Amino acid sequence: MKALRNPVAIVTLLALQACSISTQPSSQPSPTAPAASLDKPASITPQTFIMRGEIVLGHEVRTITPCGSQQQYWLELPNDRFQQAMSLVQRPYEPMYGEVIGHLETGLTDGFVADYAARFVVDSINLITAENPKRCQQDTKPTRAFGTEPFWSMSFEGNQLAFQKMGEEKQLLELSSSRIESDRRRYQFDRGSLELNQRSCSDGMSDSLYGWSATLEIDDGQYQGCATLSNQDGTQDWTGYYQASSTKSSDFSISLQLKPDHTATTSYSYNNGESDSVERGYWQQLNPEQIQVVMTHHQQQPLLSERLFSRQGEQLTATKEKVGNVIYPIADGGVTLFKSASEQAQTNKQESPNQIPSSAEFNPKVDKALRNYFTSTETDPTGTRYRWLSYDLNGDGNKELITQLDWCGSGGCTLLIFENHQNSWRFNSRITLVSTPLNLGVNRSEGWQDMVFFVSGGGAVPNQHIVKFDGQQYPLNPSTAPIASYDEISQIQLFSDGLTPHQQGITL
After folding, report:
1. How many CB atoms lie within 10 A of CB 483?
2. Which residues are the signal sequence here (predicted)?
3. Three-class SS string for 347-408?
């Protein structure tokens, strides 16, 4: 097996339980890892972390979309694990749910991976399953072992192990000791022991691949099965919105947003009326006190810059920046950012299940769908800007693609809807006079969700209009649709961020 890239990972990944477990104390103090530095590339070793999300595998696409996100990363799997995962589905590109442990690296300049801002390089698999690809809706889980013939399971509940056989009462067992290694874990209790070993495992009854095998000895019986470790990302305490409280230069202010999907956005706001300058990329933990923030795009143009931030309380500080292969000192002794509780609360509010924000992140699958549409309509898309999101409109469990273009008039802009057909997007509907945010309707027509558009401008009387699917597509002009009553409007809001392609969009 591949060794973990950072010893700290053993603490956060291999020791994650429902809570911490006591082991024999060490007589020696734990050594403090030296701080990473841009001047010493060998010191920059990302800590592995677990990423949960939707996995799609095929010849041209190998991606993971983190739970609750629309960001896609190229998924770099060892070939044997790729083949094992492909055997779980009937055909390529079928979505699966996955939990993989690894780290992020920048994309490559050629091949299919060149379209992606970053690669998630897999060190090990916790779980990949085709049985229920919608597991992102489930809560995170502690370490768990299970098996068949007979059906049994064992999970952690505090400092106890909960053992249960099908049809019998749950038994709580006091944990007396544990030994945790990178590829092996052993737990001892009064009536026996549980041992987990890192190797591919299948229970033989589901289309699932597990990363650990399990052997349970209890009383006079022995049970064989598979296991999964806790699927909680132990680095999430970095997430939030950080900003400069004051700067020596009054010309601009800086903010940094670190999201749970490991995307990062740096914004520069200018006081002279210029539009914001925005850089996008990713972040990951190097050690408990440092993170690596890599920017891969500036205003949608390719960029490669890197900063290492050190943490003191709620404060992040970086003193140098690496652009390409050149390291520069940051002016005025560096940049110091402070975590904003109010801004983070607002971010969490926007990411509630009923609030679906749009994205200005480049996605090769979205780009392909749009270019296919423009080719079919013999339209030159050069210079067109757009924002996009994905949402299941027809209730089949697969998300449609909805894009807002910067083709706008006094009444609104143009919306394109692409149906998810066999895991690829094909054009379905074009709707004009669209203003965002927009709400979905409570009801469905011909199996598709009704949509509610606020129409104004162009001489129209301002009002909410409900647009219904006619069995083939949505109608072009919402101003001719019936006026929506209050009871017909749901709480689900698409393009909830209110951003337009003019403000911040991807350029074709």
Report:
1. 11
2. 1-20
3. HHHHCCCCEECCECCCCHHHHHHHHHHHHHCCCCCCCCEEEEEEECCCCCCCCEEEEEEEEE
Q: What single letter denotes the amino acid at residue 256?
A: L
Closest among 288, 317, 293, 312 to 303, alpha carbons compared? 293
In 107-151, which ranges are E strands?
118-129, 144-147
Please say if the pLDDT value at position 240 is more than 90: yes
Q: What is the mean pLDDT of residues 369-383?
A: 94
Please give the residue range of the domain that contains residue 180.
Answer: 144-228
Task: Identify which has the larger pLDDT, 205 or 97.
Answer: 97
For residues 431 and 461, membership in a common domain is answered with yes
Both 392 and 496 in one domain: the answer is yes
Contact 506, 364 (CB under 8 A): no
Region 359-388: what's the mean pLDDT?
A: 92
Cα gap 422→397, rounded to integer Å? 12
Distance of CA 488 to the CA centre of its chain: 32
- The residues that bridge with 389 in the sheet, in sequence order, are 402
Q: Is 315 left (phi over 0), alpha (psi -120 to 50) or beta?
A: beta
Question: What is the arithmetic mean of pLDDT over 202-230?
Answer: 92
Q: Which residues touch 64 (CB under 8 Å, ≥6 apart)? A: 51, 53, 54, 55, 72, 73, 75, 98, 100, 120
Comparing 57-71, 125-139, 346-360, the range with the smallest average pLDDT is 346-360
DSSP line for 186-223: EEEETTEEEEEEEEEE--SSSSEEEEEEEEEEETTEEE
DSSP type of residue 10 = I
Residue 68 makes CB contacts below 8 A (sequence gap 6+) with 136, 260, 261, 351
- The encoded tokens of residue 446 equal 């011909």
Nearest Cα to Cα of residue 233 among 339, 120, 147: 120
Q: How far is CA 114 from CA 104, 121, 269, 438, 460, in A?
A: 15, 15, 30, 34, 46
Same structural domain, 457 and 485: yes
Query: Measured between alpha carbons, how far is 265 from 314 in angstroms, rounded to an integer?
Result: 18
User: pLDDT tens, 86-122?
Assistant: 999 988 888 999 999 999 999 776 777 877 889 999 9
> Average of pLDDT values for 379-401?
94
Residue that terminates a domain, selected from 317, 350, 383: 350
Are 180 and 191 a contacting pair, CB within 8 Å?
Answer: no
pLDDT class of 342 with cuts at 50, 70, 90? low
- Total domain count for the chain? 4
pTM, rounded to two decimals:
0.74
Confidence (pLDDT) at 245: 54
Q: Give a yes or no: residue 137 inside a domain.
A: no
